[in-house]
Design goal:
The protein is an all-alpha fold. It contains three helices and no strands.
Length: 108
């Protein structure tokens, strides 16, 4: 997999967009209304109401877990994009420094 001349390329824009998109999904999840008890009158009393309440309770717990996982992934994507940008800038500075050093040697 690794050989001379092979390079890894990261699409920084895609990574940044992923972080932003994940944060948007997290915000949407956090903004959803709680379902439990909300439609009690619509279902009436009985089995359907009970099943929906069970679903609503499970959905709330699952949504909280998903929200935390999405938040973590968004942080990872944002941190990865920043790290790649920092490395890119450092490499560019090193190349410019090497080019300046070589041009000075050639002029002597």
């Amino acid at each position: 997999m690794s050989g001379e001349g092979e390079h890894t390329k990261a699409d920084l824009d895609a990574i940044k967009e992923m972080g932003t998109g994940l944060n948007n999904v997290r915000k949407a999840f956090e903004g959803l209304d709680k379902l439990k008890g909300k439609y009690r009158e619509d279902f009436g009393h009985g089995d359907l109401e009970s099943k929906f309440e069970d679903f609503a309770e499970n959905w709330e717990l699952s949504r909280e877990k998903l929200t935390e996982e999405i938040k973590a992934l968004a942080k990872i994507a944002t941190a990865a994009a920043k790290a790649y940008e920092d490395i890119d800038h450092q490499l560019a500075e090193a190349i410019r420094g090497a080019q300046k050093g070589n041009s000075r040697k050639g002029g002597n």
